[in-house]
Amino acid sequence: MSSRPESQQLVLRGVDVAYGEHLAARAIDFALTSGEIACLLGPSGCGKTTLLRAIAGFEPVAAGEIWLHGRRVSAPGETLAPERRRVGMLFQDFALFPHLSVAGNIGFGLRDGSNARKRARIAELLELIGLAGAGERYPHELSGGMQQRVALARALAPRPEALLLDEPFSSLDAERREQLAREIRDLLKREGVTAVLVTHDQHEAFAMADVIGVMSEGRIRQWGRAFDLYHEPADRFVADFIGQGARLRGTVLDGCRVDTELGELSCSHPHDLPSGVTVEVLVRPDDLVHDDASPIQAQILERAFRGADFLYRLRLPSGAEVLSLAPSHQEHAVGDRIGVSARTMRHLVLFR
Amino acid sequence: MSAPRLSDSLVLALSATLALTLSGPAAAAPETEVNLYSARKEELIKPLLDRFTEQTGIRVNLLTGKAEALLQRLKSEGRNSPADLLITVDAGNLHQAKSAGVTQPIDVETVNAAVPANYRDPDGHWVALSVRARPILYARDRVDSGQLSTYEDLTDPRWKGRICVRSSDNVYNQSMVASLIAADGIEAAETWAKGLVANLARPPQGGDRDQIKAAAVGECDLALANTYYLAGMLDSDDPAERDPARALAVFWPNQPGQGDGRGVHVNVSGVALTASARNREAALKLVEFLLTPESQAWYGQVNGEYPVREGIDISPTLVGFGPFEADDLNLGRLGELNAEAVRVMDRAGWK
Amino acid sequence: MEVVLNQTPNAAAPSGRRVVWRRPEFASGLFIGTLALLLALPVLVVLGSVLVPASEVWRHLASSVLPDYVANSLLLMLGVGLGTLFIGVGTAWLTTLCRFPGRRLFEWALLLPMAMPAYIIAYTYTGLLDYAGPVQTLLRDWTGWGYGDYWFPAIRSLPGAVLMLSLVLYPYVYLLARAAFLSQSVAVLEVGRTLGNGPWGAFRRVALPLARPAIVAGVTLALMETLADYGTVQYFGVATFTTGIFRVWLGQGEPAAAAQLAALLLVFVLTLILVERGSRRQARYHHTAQRHQPIRRYHLHGWGAFGALFVCLLPLLFGFLVPAGQLAVWSWTRAATGFDARFLSLTLNSLSLAGGAALLALIVALLLAYAQRLIPTSLVRSSVRLAGMGYAVPGAVIAIGVMLPFAWLDNALDAWMRATFGVSTGLLLSGTLFALLFAYLARFLSVSLQTVESGLTRIRPAMDEAARSLGLRPAQVLWRVHVPLLRGSLLTALLLVFVDVIKELPATLALRPFNFDTLAVRAYELASDERLADAGPAALTIVLAGLVPVVLLSRSIARSRHVQSP
User: Fold this and answer.
1) For residues A232, A236, A239 and A240, what is the CA-based torsion angle, rounded to 10 degrees?
2) Into which family does the record put it (chain C) (predicted)?
């Protein structure tokens, strides 16, 4: 992450944010190019919202710098006021102004330019969020999803340098979150908006973000694409937090092979662990396939029907437990023994 | 002259300020106005002031209020106070003003000639304008005036449950007790106050008129009240005021031959010239005017008070109350003893 | 703001204009602290003399009247507290959540007693219920009884004072409780019903606890007014702290001891404020519903409806109709002389003073409440509390607290100018309307502050942040988001102070300029001269002038429902 700040849209370099004595976020580095959508993902209390508020200008930084569109907006002792940053923000509870109509809310941040241009921009955004003609209605007359889209339009109206979204889906129905997240992603992409989303829900993160930063205890543990986070987690925390899986004990044989209870596994990239070292191997449910021919027999402890497939919790002969995903055409009962194989495993993730 | 509106007085205040700031210490100009702080209610002084303005062309700016507050204002404003004169309705506050050093002597021959010495400050710092007497009022149908003699006698057990008087918060009662301290000493005054409280028909409440009404309807037989309240009720068109007053008669206590014969307790309304007075000449003109026979008669006619000047005709109502001898104690003493009087009443349980 | 493209880091480095440093926030905190200190000056000046030893006086007080002052003040507070609580909450609940004949009338009419100054209602009831008054005279005429043949409650007594004050102060509780009931989500009440509570149970277990902060705030206001009352208790011969302060100060000439009594009074007040704060803390949890359904009122029939009518009629009758009727009768008998040429100017003076003070108090309250929201430091918080202290301090004490420092400042400036330039500036502040307005502000700021604050706590911080991120400076957030959302609260604050100032007497009396009288001054001068009937026209006009805002207020409450509940 050695990007030059002026060539990037949003850059954080070595940022610490303090809440009193406590550092809520520390040594944060990342950079987004224009139009990129990032997500800060982590459990509650990991510092992701604090970091977002620091980007917005509501919290000062204790160390490091924040750059927005080639301009330094935060450094220790100097905090450009939120209203001067040109960042849009989407709040958990939307924070629509109840005394203003939908059009009034959307036009709230439009202060320069003629009335005609404002009206045109409002109409354009109403169109964009699929609420054309609803401009004269009031927030309390709208459903939650509609309110959220109005809040989004309000944040986008002044064409901000970046859009910050603070758990924007948490007050909506669980079933609709992913769908809404994709809708909003499409919308942001169409507008070319640089955005940072904060959430604790990985599905939202996967649905929306180009890059994801997994946070824990104030630090970014890993910064990367969803695919990388899942298949090449940097540490045990990321491995556990993203997706499901189990860790099996193994012994390194040589440059690219590890011996485990599931047999000898090969890695895609060579690693530099010496032979004979004991490691833990991350086994995702999709790494383990059902193979009646396999010599490795596992007992089913629990199963969950998920439509297209079953998720089984299995006990290996050694007593270690693993998860396995199997097509739902074939049904096994709890207590049955089935053969499993890790032959198709592509990504070998090792922890010492 | 009518009272100015908010905007008028704001403009007035601003332009006065500006004028002061620009012109420096006031040049000797003919005095066309006089500023008056008055504890006497507007209704009871404005007509006289208007007449003064008519006669002399001198405008009188009036600020009414409670004497203590006006005095406090005078003290804190110090040498820049706009007030030229302070009028109060009791001698105590005039004495306080003198002690606080905010007054100066009124050394005018006509004034000294018009007002008897005991109604003037010995050093001339204030002069009385009217006399207000606080005698005993009795219910004609239940009390024979022969039974009454002195204030001191009111503690006699035969009056148990028969006397009405207002709260000791009131300055008229405080002055009355102060006069008893002056006459009989602190201990005797406290014994007297205790005896009076023991003879009360009800806890002290209301004003002087309320005591008169209570005596009229039989709640008590005697009331201590200032004569001008009784006179005001007698002269009222309202039967609810007039009828109770008619049921009562005035008894002048402590007259020669009764007890020490020192005379009935009186207080005065009076005027002092402030130390900071800028319109000294005009102010003294006003004092003289308030002591003219014409003005003196007006107090008696309109508010049932007695003139300080001898030989003034008083209203028929006052004539009906009969002549009396007043306590000739110098009224400044009332002011000196006021705090002591309050403590005496506190200890006596006079609410 | 223009977008700067492709700038080097140096060129984009913060310039003074663009960057908001943390330091200005400290500076504005300091400014707010100074402003608050200035407003608390009158109280502080009075308290300043606490340090002067006055043990002699205290020995005397402690051995004679102090126990009475304490007992009477506490009993008065207890009585008025309970009285305003029951009348205020009961009528608020009935008019908000029940349907009975006359409900819509009572909705606003129940506020009318607010326009009645306590000292005036005391005068009228004394006139009516005294031994010599029409009621007892009629009783004697009917029965042939004489004095001592029957028992009649003495109106001029501690219970009488409790009754008078409760009758005119309950609208504070009614007003705030009603607003709280209106803002409660119907769903919450319905949950209460589904969990097996009847209408009464839902009220007691759900509505009442939810409205508690508002109710406590209302009772606190009423109790602060009670502590500051001088006219009523003095007239009724009830010795309280406030009458004691005057007695010690003026009667015994002991300002230090009086200030110490006043300090003791402030301890009462601070306790009240702390209690109120404590319950306010929970206000955060109330009222989170996003949308409202219209309230479905319980339909009362038969005896229930009659009972509700009766309960609402009583305070209206005795708190307003009877005394106003008495004033009207008095005014009628004095119609020829009472409404003279000066009357119009008195009325205009009263109205413009009250209007000016209300507006000023609103602006300052908004400033302080907003500062508290923006810079939530303990310095700012405690400053704001300090500024609101004057409410429970008797007006005359405030007046002296204004008089002394203003005159000192004037004289010091004058002395300096004389010494330096040979020019006298005289009194620039003392004896001006500015001094009077300042006194009103010191005394009544708390009223507008509390109203604005409680309105402001209902606006979630995310709303501010949304506006900031849309490019608004804090001042613009205030103007474009808070003011419109607070419209109801602001109007309430404006009107409450207006009514209070119209009624105010002691500070007006002590601080006003030459030739400047108000209705309250006129009514007082006549009433204190024991000419109650002559005081009728002025007193009635005070009540009528107070009525207009009260009616406006009640109408705005009825309409503000959806605006006030985001």
Assistant:
1) 180
2) Belongs to the binding-protein-dependent transport system permease family.
